[in-house]
Amino acid sequence: MFYIGIESGSDIILKKVTKGATAQTIIKACQKAKNTGYIISCMVILGLGGKTYSKQHIEDTARILNATSPHFVGALTLHLEEGIRDEFLTKFKEPFIPIDDSDALDELEMLIRNIEPNVPVIFRANHGSNAYPIGGTFPDDKAAMLEKISYLRHNPQLGRPVGLRGF
Fold first, then answer.
1. Domain harbouring 67, CATH code
2. Rounded distance, CA 124 to CA 137, Å?
3. What pLDDT digit, counting tens, does each position of 111-165 carry?
4. Does some domain include residue 132?
5. Domain count of the chain?
6. What is the pTM of this model?
7. CA–CA distance, 140 with 161 (Å, rounded to integer)
8. Is there a contact between 159 and 101 (Cβ–Cβ < 8 Å)?
9. Full domain range(s) for residue 68
10. SS3 content of the chain, % helix, strand, coil (to 5)
């Protein structure tokens, strides 16, 4: 299995977080691994662009996922703990406004709406960092995942308390 932390599909964000890769190099790496028979598992980070780059981050991330159609996609949510916060903010080089749980649902919804793989993709946003667990397989479960997001948006009390989130 080939695990890759895509993190974001936005070249701007990838540069800000000093990923050391561009969207195109990530796509090439995934395609090369897939063509040699590897099962591909990709991770993305909700909130990595903060509020300022939220839309661009998600749209560009969906583009990478559509270009690579990995077997698995996992979505985590960014939480800046004390040990990394200052370094992250310094590298970001502009004010960073973190997303909240509602914004994370917005990003998750936008990501799910924009993922259009050409093969089935197992999607999970059930990592301990996420307020709300979502999962399914594209394309079959896309509508159900979007319905669950709508339900959770109207029932925010169902979110995992911050103190119980694993980062």
1. 3.30.750.200
2. 9
3. 999 999 999 999 999 999 999 999 999 999 999 999 999 999 999 999 998 888 8
4. no
5. 1
6. 0.94
7. 30
8. yes
9. 2-126
10. 45, 15, 35
